[in-house]
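User: I'm writing a short report section on ligand binding and want a predicted complex to refer to. Could you take this sequence and zinc ion and write out the structure as tokens? A short remark afterwards would be nice.
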Amino acid sequence: MSNATSLPAARVVLDWRKGQVSDQPAPCVLCGRPALCRSPAKGLPCHKGCAEAWIQDHAHTPHHLARLIAAHTPKGVAW
Ligand SMILES: [Zn+2]
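Assistant: Sure. The structure tokens for the complex follow:
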């Protein structure tokens, strides 16, 4: 079954190599399980995979997808 409003099924992959990591796990804002990663956008505890799935689910257009990916990629990552 196809959904005309959904984006292509391309998987979002964020580059969090320069992202913040805490030494204290805290509940992920998306799934609630302990996470060491911190979201580059807000500094909140968040798994990279959860952020990728959230972006995939919430992007409305390819342009919106690109903006979300940029907003959730740590500064200093060279493209
Ligand atoms: Zn999570």
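A remark for your report: DSSP finds two helices and two strands in the chain. Strands lie at 20-27, 34-38.
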